[in-house]
Each structure stands twice: as C-alpha cells, then as structure tokens.
Specification:
Length: 213
C-alpha cells in the first residue's frame, strides 16, 4: 500500500506513550478500509527502526512497554535535560507564588479560603499552578457545596529543591513586605502564617512576569 510506512511513522511520532501494533493496525484499517496483517506491520516498523538507527538522526524508535515510541538518543540527553530544566525553572508570578504559599502551608485548602487570605480572586493563579503541575486537586470539602480542595503535587518539592515538606521555611523566617496583597490580619490569624516575601533564596528566585493578573 502506497505510503503505508510513512503513516506508521506518523502514528509512532504523535503517540504520547508507546503505541502497540494492534493500535496501529486498528487505526490504519479504519483509515484505508482494508485488512492488514500484524506481521506485515512489524516488518515495516523494523524498517523504520533501522532507518532511525542511523547516526544522522537524533531520535530512534524503541520497543518499550508492549509498543513502540520515538525517543531521543542518549548522546542528546544532557542537552535536552538542560532545556527542560530551564523551562521548568521559569519563575512564577507574584500572584501565583502567593497562592502556592497558601496551598503549601494550609493544604488541603479550598479556593474560597485562598481568596479570603489573599483578598483577591485566585482563579488564574490556580490554573497556572495546575498547568505547571505544582498543585493538584486532592479531594472535596465536607462543607456547603463540597468545594474542591488543593494540595501540593509531587513535582512541588522537585521544583523548589526540597526533600520533604518539613524543609519549607518556617513562618517566623518570613518578613512582611512594605506593599502587600490581601488581608495581613487574615493571614496572621490563620493557623500558619503565609509568606508574602521570603528571605529564602529558593522562594525568591521563582517569579515570572505575568500580565494576565
């Protein structure tokens, strides 16, 4: 079948996880409305594997977890790792950092509680933190309307370079800035003081300019 090899190649390329021969077969049979043999597909896949084994390509096709996936070759892991680290370390906006501080020190916490402490809407900040996978939905409150509860994610500790939540700066280590957002009294009256500005370099170095809030 004309161009079948390239169709297989495109499926392996776009798959966000290993794609099995069965999935490839099902898709191609639906597209071309013909029956295909898995044995023939495996032959084509092996041709692609041999093609990308050439040193002219930075990627290769690996058989893994019952399927096939494009992966970068080992020689480029350091370059890619540096790029991903730089992207991950893009600094958070002040509003996102304030919201994240509330989540970290008062989790599990609802959006309404975050907004009570900050004194402003937290919708956008929460969406940014969810997108960066720094916070996660951990359940629902038993209160009226059963609002969602948020907590820090596994990625949170990697992002800030700490081994455990107990390594977070203690409330007494924070100093209040001259200009604050939200109700300081509400923060001080809560069970844990929440940082508006920190003397800890790990926290100060995570601020990204954000014009959306």
């Amino acid at each position: 079948m004309e161009g079948l090899l390239r169709h297989i190649e495109s499926l392996i390329f776009v798959a966000d996880q290993p794609i099995s021969v069965g999935e490839i077969q099902e898709c191609l049979e639906s597209v071309f409305e013909v029956k295909l043999k898995q044995e023939d597909l495996i032959i084509d896949i092996n041709l692609l594997i041999n093609k990308y084994a050439d040193d002219n390509y930075s990627m290769e096709i690996i058989e893994i977890a019952g399927g096939y996936q494009f992966l970068t070759k080992g020689a480029f892991h350091n370059t890619i790792g540096t790029f991903l680290k730089n992207r991950t370390n893009r600094r958070l906006s002040r509003s996102a950092l304030e919201t994240l501080s509330i989540v970290a020190y008062k989790q599990p916490v609802s959006k309404s509680d975050m907004e009570r402490i900050r004194g402003v809407s937290c919708d956008y900040a929460i969406q940014k933190l969810l997108a960066k996978e720094l916070v996660a939905i951990v359940g629902r409150s038993d209160g009226p309307g059963r609002p969602l509860l948020y907590g820090t994610s596994e990625k949170f500790m990697d992002y800030f370079g700490i081994k455990a939540m107990g390594d977070l700066p203690k409330p007494k280590e924070f100093k209040a800035p001259e200009n604050t957002i939200g109700d300081i009294e509400a923060i001080e009256d809560s069970s844990s003081e929440l940082p508006m500005e920190s003397t800890d370099s790990n926290v100060n170095n995570v601020e990204e300019t954000d014009n959306n809030e």
